[in-house]
Design a protein that fits this description.
The chain has 17 helices and 11 strands. With about 475 residues, it is of the alpha/beta class. The protein folds into 3 domains: about 5-145, no CATH class; about 150-270, NAD(P)-binding Rossmann-like Domain (Rossmann fold), CATH 3.40.50; about 280-470, no CATH class. It has a 7-stranded mixed sheet with strand order 3-2-1-4-5-7-6. It has a two-stranded antiparallel ribbon with strand order 8-9. The protein has a two-stranded parallel sheet with strand order 10-11. α8 (about 230-235) links the parallel β4 (about 220) and β5 (about 245). α1 packs antiparallel against α4, α3 runs antiparallel to α4 and α14 (about 395-405) packs across α16. The radius of gyration is 27 Å and the shape is flat. The two termini are about 50 Å apart.
Length: about 475
């Protein structure tokens, strides 16, 4: 089963557990607290029953989503999951108690304690049991090596050989299923032994191609001390790839505290934390993006139609313009815009727009000044290809030119591209590669300081630009 399918299992279990909790708790309240023995006769006339049966399970699922409970469903620690479920149930039930239950009429304040204890117990137990069963089933498959993550060893000397042997000799599998190894340089002292166990997939220069071709999910950097100068190159080459990176720690790495440990017997590996923000913040941003996009598309649907009609009437060609851009992890996608140029505007090859660009239609100039040409990209946001706020996505043609002069541009691929950005607000449209590089520093600052508060500020500035027609 795919990761998405496994995540859906967890989500459905959480939803129906929360629904069952409310039904059981509602029954308990009516029978033992309010002592309405015939409560079922008017059950479906009770407003709180409906609120609890539908709205509350949705709220629980949203909370779990924000925590990252459905992220990487095959990499769950049962102990961490137990603790997370415990404190989430405690905090969530406290909120529910004060919002929905504290104003109930009761005979004794002790009933509040009983209600809280019952609701908390039900929520924790009925949520934890299916989670524990799902996680145990997954862990059993991993231990039996029926399930795992395609792993690539970088290195072919003593460290690589030792890591391979120690992982393979574990009584229970740890999830690493070795797809092969690649060389670093001509010093390949243990490659003859390794190649008898796993395929040799190429050299360091082939790293990106090997990861994509073999769908590698994890990399273990097993270099000798004389090869450590290659680590930065490996990190740069994989910056826009969705792979986990582990390496053998040195004393400095441990003291730096910038990595989290995983356990491998006799050879502890450390996993580089390459997340740009906490998981809850990334998920909260996604919820905000979807909610805001739905609001805009519904509220301004009339404007969407009017702009489409005007584009069609003022120049020949399609209403919408689509073009391939690079998105999250450098994956290409089709971006949508209102057409603001005449047809065949790039018949002589890719080119950036400039001031007084003859390729832009009169109405297209208005669309660009007000940024309304970007309106259809809210559809890209709903598809998960873009965010409301994020670095502007570029075509591969121009991205390659930027990387030639500024290799750190690749760091932007860790962030989902946006309709508007800090660079766009501060700098506007770039007319050449040098201006793109000047704008780059603002987008890098955003990537390192990403938050919902920053997003709201950028959205406000963008709205001002729309109304003032100051788009460049």
């Amino acid at each position: 089963m795919s990761k998405r399918g496994q995540a859906i299992k967890y989500l459905l279990c959480d939803f129906f557990a929360a629904m069952l909790v409310w039904v059981l708790f509602f029954s308990y309240r009516k029978i033992y607290i309010e002592q309405e023995w015939q409560w079922y006769q008017h059950l479906f006339l009770n407003k709180k029953f409906y609120i609890g049966s539908v709205f509350i399970p949705v709220c629980w699922v949203v909370v779990y989503y924000l925590q990252g409970a459905y992220h990487e469903p095959y990499r769950r620690s049962r102990l961490n999951e137990f603790i997370q479920t415990l404190y989430t149930a405690l905090i969530g039930v406290l909120i529910l108690f004060f919002v929905l239950l504290l104003d109930d009429t009761i005979q004794s304040y002790k009933n509040y304690y009983k209600s809280f204890a019952v609701l908390f117990s039900l929520q924790f137990v009925l949520t934890e049991i299916p989670r524990f069963l799902l996680s145990s089933s997954t862990n059993h498959k991993i231990q039996k090596r029926k399930l795992g993550f395609k792993t690539l060893i970088i290195g072919s000397n003593e460290n690589a050989w030792n890591i391979y042997n120690e992982v393979q000799n574990l009584k229970d599998g740890n999830g690493n299923l070795f797809s092969g190894f690649i060389h670093i340089d001509e010093r390949n002292g243990f490659s003859d032994k390794l190649i008898e166990k796993v395929p040799h997939l190429g050299e360091l220069t082939d790293l990106v191609a090997v990861i994509k071709q073999h769908r590698i999910e994890e990399i273990i950097i097993a270099l000798e001390s004389t090869e450590h100068n290659y680590i930065q190159q490996i990190l740069n080459d994989t910056i826009d790839l969705d792979v986990r990176i582990k390496l053998i720690p040195g004393v400095y790495d441990i003291l730096a505290g910038s990595v989290k440990f995983t356990s491998v017997i006799q050879a502890p590996l450390i996993e580089l934390n390459r997340e740009i923000a906490p998981r809850w913040q990334i998920n909260a941003k996604r919820i905000f993006d979807v909610s805001f996009s739905v609001f805009v598309l519904v509220t301004f649907s009339w404007l969407f139609i009017i702009l489409a009609i005007i584009v069609k009437l003022t120049s020949k060609g399609n209403v919408f313009f689509s073009q391939e851009r690079l998105g999250l992890h450098g994956k290409p996608f089709k971006i949508f815009k209102y057409r603001s140029m005449y047809i065949d505007a790039e018949k002589h090859g890719p080119a950036l727009s400039s001031e007084n660009d003859p390729r832009i239609t009169p109405f297209g100039l208005f669309l660009r000044k007000t940024r309304l040409d970007e309106f259809p990209q809210f559809i890209n946001v709903l598809f998960g290809q873009m965010s409301i706020v994020g670095p502007r996505p570029e075509r591969k043609f121009f991205a390659d030119k930027i990387i030639e002069k500024a290799p750190h541009y690749k760091h932007l691929h860790r962030v989902r591209p946006g309709i508007t950005s800090w660079g766009q607000v501060k700098f506007g449209y770039a007319e050449n590669v040098d201006e793109m590089i000047q704008r780059l520093k603002y987008d890098l600052l955003y990537a390192e300081n990403m938050s919902l508060l920053v997003d709201v500020k950028i959205i406000i500035y963008t709205i001002l630009i729309v109304f003032q027609g100051r788009g460049k």
